[in-house]
Batch of 2 targets.
Target 1
Amino acid sequence: MTAQGKFVPSLRETAGARDALSFFRNEWNIYQKIVQSNAMHHRDLASLLGAVISKRFAVPFHFFDLACGDGVFAKSVLHGLPVARYQGVDLNENALMQAAETFKNCPYDFELHHGDMVAWVNRNRTPADVMWCGFSLHHLKTCGEKQALFSAIYQSLKPGGLFACVEPTCHAGESREHYLARTRPQVRSRFAALDDQEFSQMWAHISEHDHPETVQSWLSMGVRAGFETSREIYRMPGDLFCAAYLFEKPARRFTQA
Ligand SMILES: C[S@@+](CC[C@H](N)C(=O)[O-])C[C@H]1O[C@@H](n2cnc3c(N)ncnc32)[C@H](O)[C@@H]1O
């Protein structure tokens, strides 16, 4: 089977989305250094997510990748799995050009959308089996914005579908300012692949755009959106920094007579 890929024209961007984009438009190569050195545990997360999906889906499934970047993470998750179709959305056109290269020889159809994931999920009318969002929900500033996206994601999944994400996570009762001060030293050692200039660019981005939530807050958003189960499935080693979460949509809806 020959893979087919296409770009879909831009969606409307929100002001918050434009802010988050400014770093990744200019500094995508710094982020790639971080990923390649496994400083954010992409390799561990890819094998974990691959195992979760293969346990759940023996038949071809549709995978939606929110804020997909260059698609390298998803490609490694999906390797060897029965993928019917991959769809990715990102604000960063450069990253999407790389994603087109990433998927060009894959044995499944792919579609890359340029635009804001919030707008995309809200207008999506083709439900998915699995939705993934890696290190990007935290660009939404408020709990209300994040909750609205969780609810839209729930609506965009088929019954029995899965949503998973990995996001910055703070201790219960910890302020954003305290989280940033506490995690800065460990982030500097995690990002050992970056020189001081690259680290300060990355840290400036994190300080301005990262809006972590507690474990309980991330899980509660899933519950409020309607997911049947919400659980933490991975925590980066060391003092709490980022964790991954899995949310399962009920297989069937029961209506009262
Ligand atoms: C930290 S990178 C993560 C990329 C990839 N998910 C990964 O785990 O390697 C953040 C990505 O989110 C994208 N992004 C941020 N806000 C977005 C939004 N509202 N809609 C779509 N993409 C967004 C950026 O362009 C960037 O590619």
Target 2
Amino acid sequence: MSEPTTEDASPAEPRLPTVFVTDPAFLNHLVPDRFPEQPERLRLSVAMIDALIAEGTLPAERLLRLAPRAATSEELAAVHDEAYIERVHRAVEALIAAEARQTSKARPPSRKLANEVYISAGSWEAATLAAGASLVALDAIAEGRARNGYALVRPPGHHARPGEAMGFCIFNNVAVAARYAQRKHGWQKVLIVDYDVHHGNGTQEMFYDDPDVVYFSTHQFPLYPGTGASTEMGEGAGEGATINVPLPAGSGWSVYDPIFRQVLWPVADRMKPDVILLSAGFDAHFLDPLSEMALCNADFSDLTLEVAEIADHYCDGRLVVVQEGGYHLNAVAQCAATVLLALTGSDGIVDSLGLPPPQNFRWNDEAIIRALYDLHHLAGYRRKPRKPVVRAQPTPSKEETSVAQESPSGE
Ligand SMILES: [Zn+2]
């Protein structure tokens, strides 16, 4: 575990804390054994964060810990069909009734709600709190009590469609937050960045014709759920407000870094967001069992810091990170702790997992970026890559070193 650096603002203007919203009720959304999206993901993440606080790596005063509240049916209905919300509610109520009738002390039943989605007696509470957690974070930011926030929740949300649960997701937490930011706080232009390894088909669908909510997603392609081609760019008034960056399996830092710095920045520069929401899944981690990407913990820190810098530049730092996927238990817990550190202004990382195995190939990130520039007519501010494009540079031979040292300065 490395020591975080402290980059405080001047003493006259202390940095506001990061609002951190989570709740034990998220553990009561039960799923069958060996289902990838399990309660342990969140339990371990919170334990990792608590340990960071206990040892002082993450000073407690940098966090504002708040409990979530349940999103109301009206808030959910901003992006979901009312009939669907009611159907989920009734299905969970039926399970609770069934559990009350159950005489044995067997594990409470979970049952299938939709493809890749299970519910249990605790699922209504967990799902409505998951949707409400980022609303609490947005309120704290609006009230000047926090600079940015992290809603560490489950079930995740970005696959949930207006009228359908899908891919471990019941309600689309980040989409509910986007509409709430507009309606409650007047932050009309919302940028949703989604670095979960899967395409957020539900989020895309909910804002596909909306010019004010820009959806930017990097994802392995092809992969579940199959959407997210770069030619899916929005429709009607929203044409151009959906930016999909489908990436080939094996993509790592050498691809993600230039895309965030040279594609996401001009996208943000064009829209000038009032608030940024980050769908943070950690399943592009090289150890994740559901995908084949090559990011490591430090990369999630840097990508999050990049998004935080964009928020600093355009919207006074207003950024709420909303937890999505990530299915390697240690990776998701360490990345959650690392991302929370990043939000508090630290570039410290929690990492016992190391670097992805070296690859003997490199994707042509320049061609990917050029294609995105052509598709989206991008111009304006862009940043040069922050790190060497190839992480492990071969060490120069002794001969090369001495030549370099002996070469004239040219002056
Ligand atoms: Zn995912």
